Amino acid sequence: MNKLEFLEKRLKALNSFAIGFSGGVDSMFLAALAGKISGIKAVAVTIVSAFMSKTDMDHAQTMAGQLGLDHRMIYADLCDIPDIRKNSKDRCYFCKKKMFSLIKENLHGVDTVLHGANTDDLKEFRPGLNAAHEMGIIAPLVDAGLSKAEIRMCSKDMGLETWDMPSQSCLATRIPYGMTITCEKLARVEESEAFLSALGFRNLRVRCYGDMARLELDADGFERIWKNQNREKILAALKQIGFLHIALDLEGYVSGKMNRH
Fold first, then answer.
1. Residue 81, Ramachandran bin (φ over 0: left; ψ between -120 and 50: alpha; else beta)
2. pLDDT confidence of residue 228
3. Alpha helices (H) in 37-182, listed in sequence order
4. Cα separations (Å) of 248 from 52, 202, 234?
5. Max alpha carbon distance in the chain (Å)?
6. Distance of CA 229 to CAs 222, 223, 236, 241, 244, Å?
7. Kind and range of the H or E element at 28?
8. In this structure, are residues 183 and 174 in contact, taking their beta carbons and an 8 Å threshold?
9. 248 in helix, strand or coil?
10. pTM
């Protein structure tokens, strides 16, 4: 039995469940596969908060519509929760615990909740995985032994447009541990990244260090920043957004960089 066959069998055995759905590579693949299996009742759930950009929220709605999913949106004010707002290294634990609790509280008749963690996530610092495990949240992609690369390959074979989508992460990951999270900071990051995306930058992060923005770009982004007066446009826009200083990270974009100790 190959990994995909194992995953299909796993989902059939569960029969009815909710999927934490961001519309990203992993949750999109999981939801799409569930939708192809006859007899399964799956609900896709998106937690909407200041931690999720409007672009990502709109994307999740669009992807759910394309798949014809039963899609629910639950609104949460995560900035109001002290353990999340203070932004310790365990922030993700408290955040995931709250999000999974909201799913369970709001979906009557659905006892089983799935999330899209993959085997690569197990190699990184992910306190949220501990919260998921404690609450009995199932990670079928991990159970099937699927890596991110394999999920992308399967997604491409299924014709999913998300197969080569850049990695997502919540906006809170742009703020260094120990620096208080506020909705105002998250909004500045969101607006800055949206501006850069509109200029054609793809794999990027805007890290918020108070009044300083630190830009992480991929190799293409480093070249793009010097073209078409993009440097000047970025400086003007991000200062207008509220940053006093704009720095370029010479190492570039590296997933999980903020988790370095």
1. beta
2. 93
3. 54-67, 82-85, 91-106, 127-134, 140-143, 148-157
4. 24, 15, 11
5. 57
6. 13, 12, 11, 18, 19
7. helix 25-36
8. no
9. strand
10. 0.91
